[in-house]
């Protein structure tokens, strides 16, 4: 998908008629390596060849609007009531974003009314629209020290017009939606319903997902905290496997369609022999299949450590026809329910090693929720706070139908529809996966190459 400059422009509710509380401090700021001045933009692409590929003058190449405070704003803060909602799966840092939004709104913009809607977007339905939490700096003072979200979250579909009715009835004119691809999709539909009714309500998305499966952001918040915690479990299972005869350590991590947590955690722990992710199919049998490689590692070093994303190998479950392990249907939001590839691998590896006289000691950990429910680490705490500041500045300036994100280290506004235009996944031909292959010494492919792929020499070791 080739993006043009106009594809990256965000909508404005109208002219900015009010001085912002930052107008004086901003009056002398210029763009620098560490600041983007108002009116300047952030390039979408960051290599000379990719920029040249557009064949356009520099002012016409695709670029994002920079996030940050504006000298003049659209809303009179005295007339603003803000709403906040968190939706989808938990992720470290949700409370940090809520806290940052409330602080920035109340302390700097002097916004008096901030409502937290409960348990995801169902909190905006007629049944729950009055069950809100009054959010103040005092109420959110320490929430960043806990995982999860004080507002609660949920899955499931809600009617956009019913949700807009709730915003109107509660007097909300600035709405922050903290969510993943589903939440961003919902924010897009909410914005479209608001626009269709000609309402003066700004909707700003704060992209969230432990899977890091959202595009147009360097990494989603909470991802670093999550893979750091996942590393602990890889280390634990490595200790267990190394201390056992023919030890087989398997850690299954979250990652429905994107294997970033598995890839980064494996690189961080640097003790894995095999990483399996949804983006790279693998075969179990055959001379160059996974089972043969597991056997080779156990024979070579006495144990093997495998890091597995939950969405890997789903095709094998179908092939195996194991009904008890095949995913069935979808969750309340329409996300596919995964089959348990971890259980299949455990069974097949144990059977294979036993059959070749290497009676295995199996050590299997699935720490998914123990990882997702933690508080944000220091890195993500800062990231969440800065995303929240950017979200408030955007909304108060009348920006709407946009998400705030960090792109190439700069905070930017991304048109909401782009946030769900594609899924961010590990590129099997990219540098991240190359690092994984270099670290694990696993072959680039397990089993016969897919017909559309050129077979590369097996691994880097
Ligand atoms: N296709 C859709 N159209 C409109 N709204 C949607 C859609 N999909 C999801 N939503 C809304 O977004 C909410 C969250 O979606 P979902 O449960 O898929 O989690 P998510 O936001 O993708 O987060 P995560 O991926 O981190 O779990 C849902 O409860 C629903 O209100
Ligand atoms: O929260 P639930 O319904 O258990 O869904 C778990 C899924 O949510 C995520 O945490 C985020 O999408 C996925 O990694 C995981 O597969
Ligand atoms: Mg999602």
Automatic annotation (TrEMBL):
User: Where on this chain does ATP bind?
Assistant: 89, 155-156, 180-183
Q: Where in the cell is it found?
A: Cytoplasm
For this entry, the protein name equals ATP-dependent 6-phosphofructokinase
From what superkingdom does this record's organism come? Bacteria
Q: Pfam families per the record?
A: PFK
Active site residues according to the UniProt entry: 211
Q: What does this protein do?
A: Catalyzes the phosphorylation of D-fructose 6-phosphate to fructose 1,6-bisphosphate by ATP, the first committing step of glycolysis.
Listed under catalytic activity are: beta-D-fructose 6-phosphate + ATP = beta-D-fructose 1,6-bisphosphate + ADP + H(+)
- Which residues are substrate-binding? 209-211, 254-256, 310, 369-372
Q: Where are the transmembrane segments?
A: none
What is annotated about its quaternary structure and interactions?
Answer: Homodimer.
Pathway assignment: Carbohydrate degradation; glycolysis; D-glyceraldehyde 3-phosphate and glycerone phosphate from D-glucose: step 3/4
Q: Which family does it belong to?
A: Belongs to the phosphofructokinase type A (PFKA) family. PPi-dependent PFK group II subfamily. Atypical ATP-dependent clade 'X' sub-subfamily.
Phosphofructokinase domain residues? 82-394
HAMAP family per UniProt? Phosphofructokinase_II_X
Question: Major location, coarse class?
Answer: cytoplasm
Q: Do you know which NCBIfam families this protein is assigned to?
A: PRK06830.1
Names of the cofactor(s): Mg(2+)
Residues bound to Mg(2+) are 181
**Per the record, where is site Important for substrate specificity?**
182
The record's section on InterPro entries has: ATP_PFK (IPR022953), PFKA (IPR050929), Phosphofructokinase_dom (IPR000023), PKF_sf (IPR035966), PyroP-dep_PFK_TP0108 (IPR012004)
UniProt source species: Amycolatopsis ultiminotia
EC number from the UniProt entry: 2.7.1.11
